[in-house]
Amino acid sequence: MEQDIEDGVDVKSVSLSFALEPYDDPIAKPSFSTMEQGIVITTSSCNEGPQVGILRNGIPWVLTVVADTIDRWFVGIMTLGNGMTIIGWSIFWGNLLLQKLSLVYDKNLETCNSFASLLKAQYGIIICHVGNIDNQIKSLVAM
């Protein structure tokens, strides 16, 4: 970041963040001196999951950017204990083996658009209703 000062940079984007206290964070100290020179530092916020809403970036002199949505869906395949396979949509792109989780369907949560309601939900795999199949296909075709 010292080079940024010499180069006359106005804004520095650092797409990193660490779940550390500012005195241990490798971005915190150099970004402070850079901020003192009038350069705006932006960083991303890391997700300390698996709980909803646990984000971390404790550097008070930087602008922290978070994302709350993504512009794509991935195929999600779930195999139940009885061997039945359910194929649906997920925003999780990786492979993950979870065992002995309950399926949770709650009419009050079906759209999964209330942060407060999701925090109160029973722990498990929450089933969300994202509209009828025609609207889902139209949204995929539009992508």
UniProtKB/TrEMBL annotation:
UniProt cross-references to InterPro entries, sorted A to Z: Peptidase_S8/S53_dom_sf (IPR036852), SBT (IPR045051)
Biological process (GO), any one: proteolysis
Transmembrane segments: 73-98
Main location: secreted
Gene Ontology molecular-function annotations: serine-type endopeptidase activity
Any single Gene Ontology cellular-component annotation: extracellular region
Highest taxon listed in the record's lineage: Eukaryota
Annotated compartments: Secreted
UniProt keyword annotations, A-Z: Hydrolase, Membrane, Protease, Signal, Transmembrane, Transmembrane helix
Family the UniProt entry places it in: Belongs to the peptidase S8 family.
Protein's name in the database: Subtilisin-like protease SBT1.9
Organism: Prunus yedoensis var. nudiflora
